[in-house]
Each structure stands twice: as C-alpha cells, then as structure tokens.
Automatic annotation (TrEMBL):
A single Gene Ontology CC term: cytoplasm
Xref: Pfam families: GrpE (PF01025)
Biased composition (Acidic residues): 33-47, 55-71
Subunit structure: Homodimer.
Name listed for the protein in its UniProt record: Protein GrpE
Physiological role: Participates actively in the response to hyperosmotic and heat shock by preventing the aggregation of stress-denatured proteins, in association with DnaK and GrpE. It is the nucleotide exchange factor for DnaK and may function as a thermosensor. Unfolded proteins bind initially to DnaJ; upon interaction with the DnaJ-bound protein, DnaK hydrolyzes its bound ATP, resulting in the formation of a stable complex. GrpE releases ADP from DnaK; ATP binding to DnaK triggers the release of the substrate protein, thus completing the reaction cycle.
C-alpha cells in the first residue's frame, strides 16, 4: 500500500472529507441511482397487455363462478295442484256435455218410438171424433171407451190440434181447398184433426182455408 506524501492532510486521512464540488457530484450520482430504470417501450406494451389479459380472465372466472348451473326444476305443489284442477274441470265439462248429448238423443229416440206407437191409434181417434160430432159419445158404453182411450193417449202427451179460426200454417196444416181471397188465411173447416207429441209432429191436419173476414 502506498502511503500519501502528506499523511497529516485531512484529505489523505479522512475519506469522508471532500470538496463541495465532489460532494455535489456524489449527490447527483446518488440521485441517479435512486431513480427507476427506464423500461423499453415495447416491453412496457407487452406488460400492459399481459395485465389486461389477466384481468379479463379473472372477470370471466368470477362470472362463471357466480353463474349457477341451469338444471330443470320440478314444478311446485301449487303449480301441480292448478294443473290437476284444470284437468278435472275439463273432464267435468266434457262429461257434462256427453250426458246432455246422450240425454237429448235418448229423449229423441223415446219420442220417436212413442210417436210411431201412438200413430196406430189415430184411426180410432178419428172414428171417435166422428161419433162425437154425431152425438154418439154423450152416454153409453162407447162414451166410457172413448174417455178411457183419450185419457191413455193424453198421458203419453199426445195432443190434438187444428180448430176453425186458427192461423193457417203450411207446416202443420194440409190444405185441400183454398177459399180465401187474400194473404190473411185461417182454418175454415177441419176435415181431419192433426196430432203431435211434444214438439214432434205425428200427423198434419187436413183443412179448408178461408179468409179471416169470411170466417
């Protein structure tokens, strides 16, 4: 080790003792050492892109974690009860309509059969009507027979129609002669009474048409 020429000089014995210029230069070097090193712009762009990708991955991972898996859920008890109630109401309505339809068909069949059977009694009723016009039903055995027969057919809802003065209806009246002179036509003479069971026509009435003024 080489000794300084002047060992007593503070500059040679105290290394911390320096000139103001040297101190200022040393301070600048220390400041430059404390500053952050400069980064290459291309490296900085790559770093920012990497940080952005990491942030996107974190966001997607969080969204996937928050999203619950979609699984088919069973209907609640209230929904099942409402569905069963609707099915029951539909079946009840269909059954009610079926009963009404079958009842109408049954009534129509009964009425048709009844009309066919009662139509066999119409010649007897015509003879009794002629006997009544001649006064043969006022008393005696024939009157008792007529009363019983008329009561029987009436219990089966067989009704007679057509009387002098009734409005002429071509649907239920069969005209054999027209003595009217206008559109206001009525039944002038009943040649044969008509019969029906309820709304079902069994036989039309045979009549002679007359005008209402000449009734």
């Amino acid at each position: 080790m080489t000794m300084p020429n002047d060992p007593g000089n503070p500059e040679n014995t105290d290394h911390e003792s320096m000139t103001p210029n040297e101190a200022e230069a040393a301070a600048e070097r220390a400041a430059e050492a404390d500053e952050e090193p400069e980064i290459d712009p291309s490296l900085e762009a790559d770093l920012e892109q990497a940080l952005a990708d990491v942030a996107d991955v974190d966001v997607e991972s969080g969204a996937e974690a928050d999203a619950e898996p979609t699984e088919p859920t069973e209907p609640s008890v209230e929904d099942q009860l409402a569905e069963r109630t609707e099915d029951l109401q539909r079946l009840t309505a269909e059954y009610t309509n079926y009963r009404r339809r079958t009842q109408r068909e049954r009534d129509a069949a009964v009425t048709s059969t009844k009309a066919q059977v009662l139509s066999q009694f119409l010649p007897l009723l015509d003879d009794l009507e002629l006997a009544r016009q001649h006064g043969d039903l006022e008393e005696g055995p024939l009157k008792a027979f007529a009363d019983k027969l008329l009561a029987t057919v009436k219990s089966q809802k067989l009704e007679a129609f057509a009387a002098e003065g009734d409005d002429f209806d071509p649907e239920i009246h069969e005209a054999v002669q027209d003595l009217s002179d206008g559109e206001d036509q009525v039944v002038g003479t009943v040649l044969r009474r008509g019969y029906r069971v309820g709304d079902r026509l069994v036989r039309t009435a045979m009549v002679i048409i007359a005008g209402r003024e000449s009734e």
